[in-house]
Write the structure tokens for this entry.
Amino acid sequence: MSTIPLTVVGAERLKAELHRLKHVERPNVIQAISEARAQGDLSENAEYDAAKERQSFIEGRIIELEAKLSNAQVIDPKLLDAEGRCVFASTVDIEELSSGEKFTYQIVGEDEADIKESKVSISSPIARALIGKYAGDVVEVITPGGVKEYEILDVRYV
């Protein structure tokens, strides 16, 4: 498995989820299975089936998170010195040339992407267009609505 880029915040979120799954969710589902098993006939026990399904999901997610964290390359944007270039974890201010609308995005890993928080995945079309560019550059992004041009106003490492 190749390395997975994560910001410090993203890595902390994954660690917190892993801790919650291991120390809260897993014991709760084990207790639920035990209680359902005590009710007798397992062949017609919906609570038992639901608890076993939940346990399977939790164990799968734990394995997935452990794999991601073991292969993570954690990048702190405050420690970057990319000389004004757009790189992973940088925060970029852009302006759509046709409408004049301004946006601010942070380029993050796939697990951290959340457009509501202005965080775009490194594999998204906008991030791919921005990577390697500098403030003042104009980039073209192919969107479902057609090609859009953006000017990079500022690149920050916060």
